């Protein structure tokens, strides 16, 4: 029951987020990746982004929440 309520709340937040991206003209030029945290667990495998994406002209800010930005970018 609590899980369903939480999923409904998350769904609403994502809907509003996407709505705002569309209003600002940003929805067409970004990728949204939704991940989940399963708690404190041993990491058995890592993924190197550049093995899957062309990161030319991009820079990353590492951390518990990683960020990947395009150099000298503005809206789309």
TrEMBL record:
SUPFAM superfamilies for this protein: Alkaline phosphatase-like
Domain of life: Eukaryota
InterPro entries registered for this protein in UniProt: Alkaline_phosphatase_core_sf, Phosphodiest/P_Trfase
Protein name (database record): Ectonucleotide pyrophosphatase/phosphodiesterase family member 4
Organism: Cylicostephanus goldi
């Amino acid at each position: 029951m609590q899980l369903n309520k939480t999923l409904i709340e998350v769904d609403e937040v994502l809907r509003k987020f996407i709505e705002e991206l569309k209003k600002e003209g940003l929805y067409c030029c970004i990728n949204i990746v939704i991940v989940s945290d399963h708690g404190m667990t041993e990491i058995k495998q890592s993924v190197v982004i550049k093995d899957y994406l062309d990161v030319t002209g991009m820079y990353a800010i590492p951390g518990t929440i990683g960020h990947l930005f395009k150099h000298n970018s503005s809206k789309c």
